[in-house]
Structure prediction request, 116 residues.
Amino acid sequence: MAVIAAKYIGRVQKGEQTAAKRTFIVDVGTHEAQTVTVSKAGGAFGATGGSTCTQLTGTRYKLVVHVDDLDTLGQLGLLSTGATDNQLFVVDVVDFDPYTEGAKSDVAMRYAAGVP
Prediction:
């Protein structure tokens, strides 16, 4: 089973209650059921507080990070594991709302410069 390079998918505020702000559309390597485990701030991977990876179509999935997994500042690793393939996604858990105007401008500038 191969592990694909980690994919950075965004920032989420610590303890974020709004599901839409914790939801990401991702691609995985194969069309199969996914199980999610988490690593908080560089710790070992373990059980999730309820994060899920649900198929939308083909290899496109909806990854919803559960609020219980957003209790530690730093990087949150989400390992989505299928029967024959793994995909590692990384989210930055921050102490501010990345959906505020200032943060939107920062993200827009980073993407325009080609920086994720």
Remarks:
- The mean pLDDT is 86.
- The first helix runs from residue 101 to 112.
